Amino acid sequence: MNKNTPVIVLLILSVIWSSSLFLAPMSVENGTVHLSDNGKANSVDYSEIWNTMPLYPRIIYYIGDFNCHQMGSRSYFINGNQMPVCSRDVGVFIGMSIGFLTAFFTDTSSGVCRAIISIFPKRIRSKILSRINSRILAAIIISVFIFPMIVDGFLQLTTAYESTNPTRTLTGFLFGWILALFFGSFIASSVEEIHTFQAKIYKS
């Protein structure tokens, strides 16, 4: 198995899901989906609405319902219909698609940390790596991408601050992008290590 095969599969699945978030609202009658702010994540709150839909949008909205709170005030609308997940999750899933695509082009020969660092031009990463350990640098990069969503969500939860949908989407995108890049690079790197190990055993 090629090291990038699992990443390609994840990329395809991620693109299909991300696209479905936009296609599902267009697959039902205008004005069919406009939810309240009372929904909860990890539970199905609106099955009576989804059961009236054709099979494809019904599946997408059911998955979205279980995954997301689906608050109307924190969601985008397409074709007069609320999207299956909130604005932050839209950013997360699009970011994951881009992240898996990026992972496909990373250098996984030296492990996941250097794979993440390889997103930077060679000249820049060479200068940085001459001053800082690759694991520390990878941790800093991951933190920089994750931190904005944590701060935005925490302030919204604990203070009177109310984020905007574009901000939620942007912070979600950064989180999804680095998450998929890490996960994709880890898988590709692991497959490559397995191939190297098998080659050594075969030679011996």
Characterization of the model:
A hairpin with a 2-residue loop joins strand 1 and strand 2. The model has no long low-confidence stretch (mean pLDDT 90). The protein has one domain. The protein is built from eight helices and two strands, in the order H-H-H-E-E-H-H-H-H-H. With 204 residues, the protein is mainly α. A two-stranded antiparallel ribbon has the order 1-2.
Strand order of the largest sheet: 1-2
Residues in helix, %: 55-70%
> What is the total tally of β strands?
2
Radius of gyration of CA atoms, rounded to a whole number: 20 Å
Oligomer: single chain
Q: Please give the count of helices.
A: 8
End-to-end distance: 21 Å
Count of spatially separate domains: 1
Overall pLDDT score: 90
- The poorly predicted ranges are none
Percent of sequence in beta strands: under 5%
Biggest sheet: strands, sense, closure? 2 strands, antiparallel
Give me the secondary-structure category. Answer: mainly alpha
Shape: globular
Q: What string gives the helices and strands in order?
A: HHHEEHHHHH
Question: What structural keywords apply?
Answer:
about 200 residues; mainly alpha; two-stranded antiparallel sheet; 2 strands; single chain; 8 helices
Question: TL;DR of this structure?
Answer:
The chain has helices spanning 5-26, 47-50, 55-67, 87-104, 112-117, 122-129, 134-158, 165-203; strands spanning 77-78, 81-82. It has 204 residues and is mainly α.
Secondary structure elements and pairings:
Layout: H1 5-26, H2 47-50, H3 55-67, E1 77-78, E2 81-82, H4 87-104, H5 112-117, H6 122-129, H7 134-158, H8 165-203
Helix pairs in contact: 1-3, 1-4, 1-8, 4-8, 7-8
